[in-house]
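Design a sequence for this backbone.
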């Protein structure tokens, strides 16, 4: 089997591991330059990883039968946080069943019901950001995306419950920032002690509050618009509702999968827009005209192409032999669809390193060539949620301000937890926009009302 895997770097696996973790995108690029669109890398203590970036091979990967590839098994390090019922950890029948329960709650049309809440939270947060001085937006964006998830997914209202849970969950997520702390050997070694002990205690306190919240919502019934309201209505094939444990695990999954990803993606958006005055100008014109959002949509698609915060989709563990692109992969190998590489392939995107939203006005994103949300039956469940959130946060920001870059050039990328984000010291300066006639008129009407 070993011999049949695609070629890849021969350096010791310790060095490959360092490259993979510390220079994620540059490492992938170097491998592709040398070995082509698919290659094998070997990390310490891991099965061989094969990175794929040919659209036909990605299609075959995303369409493989559920008993052939197991993405859930590949994600097991998340279990201490998301819990054993999480859709992200399951495979085959159980995965399908859990996903069916969740799909209606994350459906694009349902998301529209959350627009008002998301806009309100985004506008309030943006209004609190300082003007005319360099500001690092990453912490602010993390605070905003956390608030949006707690209100729009967990359905927490303002008040003590929201404040306590926000505090506990922030502490838990900070623990997850260090990937080493989530590795099973570290957990076993540290169970009940030190940092891990604190993590377990915080988790137990958060769980108690989440279970109380679920009980309360079940008891009171509700007409709320949040994701939890829809999950409370979901029914298994036998007609039974989701258990409290299932609900807790899926809420935590949304938090882990949706908080840092969206925050980092928005951080890239702010960083990029601050360097692209022409793009910003066109976005401002579109906003002021108030007609459609085609250019904003294309800009968001280009941000996700240019800087996918998850450079590779979920690892897919081979369970039964599968042939892709003439190579037979045996059980035990782990296959990755590389979004970063496919998004920067000059045969697919002309000038792939240039930031050019217009490309998506000319041609909409392709299912197997634009994969920031992965694909197939594991495609990101929160994609509509994330796209709506990005649209509303960027609208709130651009309505109010113009962005200018004030920090180091964003030539480097940094990992934060599982995502790739701009360097921490990347700063922008926000300047208040002069109100246009259209917006001034709306403002005057609102003031008069
Ligand atoms: C810009 C923000 C986001 C990005 C770039 C992103 C990206 C991804 C990717 C690449 C995957 C793996 C898909 C695959 O391997 O085929 C994934 C899975 C998932 N995401 Fe997202 N995500 C984002 C936001 C969210 C949000 C906001 C939520 C929930 C509120 C969410 C929930 C999930 C879930 C539940 C899965 C697992 C799906 C499954 O295994 O069936 N994500 N996401």
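Sequence:
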């Amino acid at each position: 089997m070993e011999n049949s895997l695609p070629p890849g770097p021969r350096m010791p696996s310790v060095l490959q591991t360092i490259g993979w973790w510390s220079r994620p995108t540059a490492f992938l690029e170097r491998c592709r330059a040398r070995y082509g669109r698919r290659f094998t890398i070997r990390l310490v203590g891991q099965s061989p990883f094969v990175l794929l970036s040919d659209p036909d091979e990605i299609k075959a990967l995303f369409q493989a039968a559920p008993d052939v590839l197991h993405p859930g098994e590949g994600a097991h390090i998340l279990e201490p946080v998301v819990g054993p019922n999480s859709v992200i950890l399951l495979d085959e029948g159980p995965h399908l069943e859990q996903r069916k329960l969740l799909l209606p709650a994350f459906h694009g049309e349902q998301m529209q019901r959350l627009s008002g809440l998301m806009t309100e939270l985004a506008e309030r947060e943006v209004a609190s950001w300082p003007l005319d001085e360099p500001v690092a937006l990453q912490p602010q964006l993390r605070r905003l995306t956390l608030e949006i998830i707690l209100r729009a997914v967990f359905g927490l209202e303002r008040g003590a419950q929201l404040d306590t849970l926000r505090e506990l969950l922030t502490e838990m997520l900070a623990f997850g920032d260090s990937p080493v702390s989530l590795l099973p050997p570290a957990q076993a070694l540290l169970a009940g002690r030190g940092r891990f002990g604190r993590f377990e205690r915080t988790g137990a306190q958060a769980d108690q509050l989440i279970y109380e919240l679920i009980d309360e919502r079940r008891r009171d019934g509700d007409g709320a618009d949040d994701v939890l309201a829809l999950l409370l209505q979901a029914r298994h094939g036998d007609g039974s509702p989701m258990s409290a444990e299932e609900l807790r695990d899926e809420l935590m999954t949304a938090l882990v999968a949706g908080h840092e990803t969206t925050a980092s993606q928005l951080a890239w958006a702010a960083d990029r827009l601050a360097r692209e005055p022409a793009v910003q100008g066109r976005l401002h014109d579109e906003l002021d005209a108030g007609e459609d959002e085609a250019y904003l949509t294309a800009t968001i698609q280009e941000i996700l192409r240019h800087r996918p915060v998850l450079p590779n989709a979920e690892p897919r563990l081979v369970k039964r032999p599968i042939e892709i692109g003439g190579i037979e992969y045996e059980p035990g190998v782990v296959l990755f669809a590389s979004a970063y590489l496919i998004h920067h392939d000059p045969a697919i995107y002309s000038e792939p390193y240039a930031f050019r939203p217009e490309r998506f006005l000319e041609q909409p994103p392709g299912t197997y060539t634009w994969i920031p949300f992965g694909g197939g039956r594991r495609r990101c469940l929160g994609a509509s949620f994330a796209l709506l959130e990005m649209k509303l946060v960027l609208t709130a920001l651009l309505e109010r301000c113009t962005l200018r870059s004030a920090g180091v050039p964003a030539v480097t990328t940094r990992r934060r937890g599982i995502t790739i984000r701009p360097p921490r010291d990347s700063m922008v300066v926000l300047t208040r926009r002069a109100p246009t006639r259209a917006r001034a008129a709306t403002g005057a009407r609102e003031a008069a009302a």
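Residues 71, 87-88, 99, 153, 253-254, 257-258, 261-262, 265, 309-310, 313-314, 372-375, 378-382, 385-386 surround protoporphyrin IX containing FE (CB under 6 Å).
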